[in-house]
Design brief:
The protein is mainly β and 512 residues long. Helix content is 1%, strand content 44%.
Amino acid sequence: MRKPLYLLFLFVLSLSFTTGCGSNVASGVGGGTHGNATVSLSMTDDPPAGVSVLFFEVSLTNATLQSAAGESVSLLNNNTPVQIDVTQLQALSAFLSTANVPAGQYKSLSLTFANPQLVIYNAADFSLSNCAVGSMCQLSPGMDGSATVNLTSAPFPVTLSAGSPLGFLIDFHLNRVIQSDLSVDLGVSDGVTISELPPATAVPPRFGLLTGTVESVDGASKSFTLHTAWGWTFTIDTTSSTTYNNFPCTSQTVPNMACLAPGEIVQVQIVGVASGGALTASQVRYVQAQGAQTVEGTVLEIFPSPATLVPAPVTLVMMAHQNPAASTTFPIGGLVEVIVPPAATLSIDANGFTMPSGVEFANNSQNGAWAAFTVGQNLTVAVKSGSVSMNPPITPPSGIGPKVVFTASSVELEPSQMTGAATAVDDSTQSFTFGANTGPVFFPWPWRPNAVNSFNVLTTGQTGYIGFTPNSFDGLATGQVVSVNGWLFAPASGSLPQIVAQGLLLRPNAAF
């Protein structure tokens, strides 16, 4: 599937999370003598040493621009809070909101957060917040000081002018914000910073990903409405360039808008904000049908299954990051146990990306699905009807256990996100290794002792680059710290796990 815009570059990891606020300006919206600017918010994603952050969620309860005249303008629709899974925003951006803002000069942006939820693995040599060494723990950390941060430094003050696009990139650094006692302090120096995004003409604008349920489709205007899990409805405009991926649509040779139907859950890549707040989509990806259940999460553990079954099913313990149908059975940030039988369909959610030869995610005739899975993969699992139970048979060797178990009818491999230092660059194969002991590797490695933390990264002509000189494989060099967004494949015997990179982001000065 599954935060900075292409400007936030769909890849900004670090278990620090980055928040992006993109804005397009519109004239004559909502009255006023100077016109209005349509301002949008997007968000993207380093804790105490020895702590692996497996999940971090927080609610954005307020986002307010302050004008030079002292007036305040809310950027949240009806002030409805937005829940943000930060760990899914390590290298991507998530679209949050749009608002019509009167044109003029603004001196600051105020953001208020609440209800942080944290899941960690404690690999330190001492207990933290009652989380024992070697344990995985769910925490509700307190807020030290104010939960509101006021951003007043450059690029503020800014002037919103009708017809002139403007965007912000806000970096929320978990390594500074999460304190040694695992509380959250937004007031620390450089815990939250802001910068202005390049103009839309400089980089293809991507305002992040938005997931929701299709409410209505208007073929005449080439638009549809999308209702999000937090209760907002957006109008989505499409163009002749919009692509449709993963749709089980047989009525069209090439999937197009005719494949959209009310009740479907889809994910949209936003690339523009029009006058009045309508959003423009570059991609629409099918997630699930009305009434279906899927769970997206990260593989944390893989367990043996009964030897009497040959080939045996695979049992996965996953951290749930998305439940598009918003079922309370599958709590976000909780663990789920997934039984993958030999008959389950395995596939890659390539979303239009062409995979290089030699990588596969499939059942093996001899070993079943065992050869397909590895810790750290991001998967979307379709829940087999009638298979859900609240009595998982397996208890992980340490820490919290799964809350629910179900059988998978199908499993899709989604892009994973991670950051590390390039250890060797191979120009002849356009690949590089990263991780090992030469630099930091974040989420979810190393989340357990002796975990694999070195990877072989494959690039193709479709791989995107941000921050390199030049913005291509030629700009990559040994020692650079980079964030990778790509599909993680299990290693063959004696080899490293492989990542097919959808995008790479340079981390100057190893700054997260």
